Amino acid sequence: MMLSNTPAGLWHNSYAPGAVKIPREVPELETLRLTLKRFTAKDFGDLCCIFGRPEVTRFMGDGLPTSPLQTSIALESIIKHYEIHGFGRLAVREKATGRLIGYGGLRSLDGVPELVYLLDSPYWNRGLATEIGAECLRHGFEDRGFERIVAMTKLGNIVSQRVLAKLGMYCEGLSNYYNCDVLFYSMLRSAFTHRNVPMVEP
Q: How far is CA 47 from CA 12, 33, 77, 177, 194, in A?
């Protein structure tokens, strides 16, 4: 993927193989209400349910619910991503029930760590996306040693834009991926160190 209309130096020192810590095993992250662990093939059924909701996939790809075949391909890609890059999307589970409710993590965007997250609709409006994002940023900067993490949202995804703002990510402006206009965000390790972000909303 190529990002157009990008400010000079966007990719500088963001992620360079050999310059960051590569874990031997996929980490297990934890927040007040959630756990983030490695996806397995056993998550296929639950993921099909989540990806089958139109409201959940509204800002994913073409905006349509995903078929079981598409979900299977996506799950295989998520699992392989860790093998290739040493980081990726993790399965987000609610501590109270152990239920899979979405994903969150960092994936490689042309070699740059990109913050991504998705929640099943029954778990919206609880501050969980902010909780996921904060822990993923912490993991990227503190555990992995990244100097820069990016994120992007479609223009209509106002809720996600608010989450990224709460996380303290800087909006660099309008960019385009796959002929889709997006708002592009970034954060430096130095900005993360001095941020003031609520881990859980009231």
A: 35, 20, 13, 25, 36
Per residue in 84-117, pLDDT tens?
998 999 999 999 999 999 999 999 998 899 999 9
In the chain, how many domains are there? 1
Tell me the pTM. Answer: 0.84
Range of the domain at 128: 29-193
Sheet holding 180-188, edge to edge: 29-30, 34-37, 89-94, 100-109, 112-119, 148-154, 180-188, 170-177
12 DSSP assignment: T
Assign residue 175 the CATH number of its domain: 3.40.630.30
Q: Please return the burial class of 58, using the count of CB atoms within 10 Å of its CB with bins 0-12, 13-18 and 19+.
A: middle
* Three-class DSSP category at 129: helix
Q: Considering only CA atoms, which of 90, 115, 111 is closest in space to residue 170?
A: 115
SS (H, E, C) 25-70: CCCCEECCCEEEECCCHHHHHHHHHHHCCHHHHCCCCCCCCCCHHH
Taking the C-alpha atoms of residue 59 and residue 86, their distance in angstroms, rounded to an integer, is: 26
- pLDDT of 2-56, one tens digit each? 222 223 222 223 333 344 444 446 679 999 999 999 999 999 999 999 999 999 9
